[in-house]
Fold this sequence. Notes:
Distance between the termini of chain B: 67 Å
Shape of chain B: globular
CATH class of the largest domain in chain B: Alpha Beta
Radius of gyration of chain A: 15 Å
Oligomer: heterodimer
Shape of chain A: elongated
Order of helices and strands of chain A: EEHEE
Number of domains of chain B: 6
Strand content of chain B: 15-25%
Number of strands of chain A: 4
Largest sheet of chain A: 4 strands, antiparallel
Amino acid sequence: MPVVAAKFDGKKYMWDKGSYSTEKDAREKMDKYENDGFEVRCIEEEGKYFIYSRRVVTEIVLEGEPPPG
Amino acid sequence: MKGSVLVVGAGPAGMRASAELLRQGFKVILVEEKPTIGGKMAQIDKMFPSNECASCTILPKMLELTSDPNMVLVTFAEVKSVAGEAGDFRVRVIKKPRYVDPMKCTACTDCFPVCPVGGLPMEFNFGRGASKAISFYSPFPPRKALINPEKCTYILEGKCGDKDIPPCVEACEPEAIVFSQKPGEVEFNVGAVILATGMQELKTKSLERFGYRKIPNILTALEYERLLSGLGPTGGVVTRDDKKEPQSVTWYVLNNPSPIGFMTAVAEAMGTIERNPNSSVSILYEGMNLIRDDYKSFYQKAKETEINFIKIDSLKVDKGINGNVNISYSKETLETEMLVLVPPYIPTSSARELAEKIGLEPDQWGFFSKKAGDTHPIHTSKEGIFVCGSAQEPKGIDDAVIQACAAASQAGALLAPCRGKEMIPPPEKELLPVKPEDEPSILTVICRCGLNIAGLLDIDELAKYTESLPHVKHVELTPFGCDGVKIRELLKTKKFNRLIIGGCSPKTHEDLFFLHTEMGGLNRYLMEIVNLRNHCTWVHSKDKHKATEKAKSLMRMGIKRTVMLEPLEDIHVPVTSACLVIGGTPSGISCALKLGQSGMQVYLVEKEESLVKIKENNNKFVKNIIDELSRNKNVKIYTDAKVGRAEGFVGNFKAEIVKNGAKETIDIGSVIVATKDDMKAESVDGNFENDLLLQRDEKNFFIGMLGIMNPLDFNTEGVFKCGSACNDISVLDAIVDGEGAASRAAGIISRKNLLKSPAISFVVDANCDGCAYCIEPCPANAITLIEYMQEDDSIKKTVEVNEAICRGCGVCMATCPKEGIFIRHFKPEYFKEMIKSVAEVS
Lengths: 69, 842
């Protein structure tokens, strides 16, 4: 099981929770993410491929209940 | 040229100059004539005008300094000669015999009780207190025994009582006693010399006119300090020669051009009232010469107490009844139970001898001479030899610290090509491997701290209670844990994987205890400090039972936390070797020049069209500095310019320089503010003062870090202030201030890397859902919101922390509603367990 968050070139990327059997499958998914404006990275572990992505949010909207107090 | 510096005198100025030079990459040889370091600061109780405890402040600094591998400390020694020239001096130093090998002495004190020669007056306490012929000179480092050759019967007669082998030799397990020791001579080759030989009270015959040494219960201000000090012969209880606690104390401040004497009297009088609010306290003075605003405020604060301030023209002193002293002045009479004389201060006698030995003619007051026409306070008549602190003229500790920094800056600029060449790297850490799941085995060290702790709570009861707590394997009661001896010795047994110290404040002592912990072989983040002094004995000084009960609760809480601590690794951050100096003032230009001469890139920003237009330009020193600046290729001058936004952290700032509407962004490792003028470029987004968290007082001066030892520092690490940014001061003092600030910055930007604490934010990705409540409150702008893809093409959010920028303040942890972010070393579960431990008992 890969780590949920990983650092590449000093930047934090998050795992998409998927596991891809071939490099081709992973590449297809990565292209899709990239087309949506995400930076992507891929690692291979024991023959499986895992994809990490990130995109900086520039317009910050607070979500959910605020902290108490 | 050599990359090392000789510092003569280990008082606050000499110690600070040494510390600054070490930070800048120069080896230091520190020579002190007394057997221990600290100078007068080690002898006084509180420092004015901040009222900080002097020994609590200086002791950690002493221990940090003496633990530095690039520091050669030669105590109980005097400089015999200094030959050569700037960059290459040959120094001969004579070491007096201690008759104890300091390399072997473990400070166990086993030799003291067996010595038959006792009751000897203690020099450090001006004859008060009693010691054996073998003893410590003072409670301060280096804690190594020494033998008084004028009193030791074995040295005088060849026999100790009826024994051929002295009992001290038999008691000394490490065989440290060496009666054959002779004075030794050592030679050092250094590039520069800093004289920090301090001052002393003028105790001439004239003091006898006021009954000194003739009438009982008349003493000098420095002698009185030893009675006020918790580490003094009476443990901080003021007593007369007949052991009675005086109910009335009077100070007489002899006429003196320096305000230091008057301020000393005020501080001592306040300390006396603090101990005994019912005592009658008077200060008789001829003049006060308070030139500083903070001195005036301190005096005003004192006037609000019960102290009587009486201005007089002359004084007559007579012996009274019952050991009292009768004082007559201006047709008035006053009977007092104790009289404290505050004489003028003069250079130390050893400084005058040293001046002759090294060819520096003393001036009419006995201070080190200068070249004709050179009034720069730090200069002497010899190039490469500098003077600082009260060796230059009597001054308060904060001013001495500024001069020490300036002297270090001068030496650093002179020897810049040899920076780092004589430094040895710190030894490799060999730390006990500790895993979070390992069974905790806690070493507890409780400090007596003189009467500071042991005198105000039941320390034996606390030790017994602590021993009963889970995971505590050993409790050690020690006079001063901060000397590190017991901590290192016990940790080296490798029986313990956690350490808890019951002692002083982490604010002043954490770095020191970190050092001892790692020298004992334990990761520093497996150590916890319980502040028994400030939180128990100081605030509950009048209720021993409550102080003890609170101490038990705090120890219980501390142990709960200690059990959960995890080893952490420091973060290495690269440093930008450049500095932004804001303000082309005398302090700004002197600062820029010293940094430029030290080989560092400087950006100097001035709002006037030209440096020659600054109002102090008619000053000879200012003119020379402006001329030299124009020739120094390391200094880039921006006139008719201001400073825009700034961001970053120590070693790595970015700032905007705004000139004619155009912005240039520069990378710098440090920032120095050298003017109180508004240097902010107009911007709707913000300004550098807010960005760097700089604050001003009601007179528009910048507010610096608290503490008398930090006169040039802001609370924002890596940002410093000097000259007219802090105060209205003379051009010469401003120049010294600027040079001092240059040293503070050089200590950062001369390094390749800085160590950063790992106690910073950590995101728990399982809990963080990117709600973004932590982002705006972060004062360092260290948190970024990011989105990421899920396999099912949904988008989730989380946050990313820039570890280099994060200050570990904990604001994010406090705002997060989901426990999605915490500060390493301060996890929420630590606090939960600590609070639970209090609730369980109550």
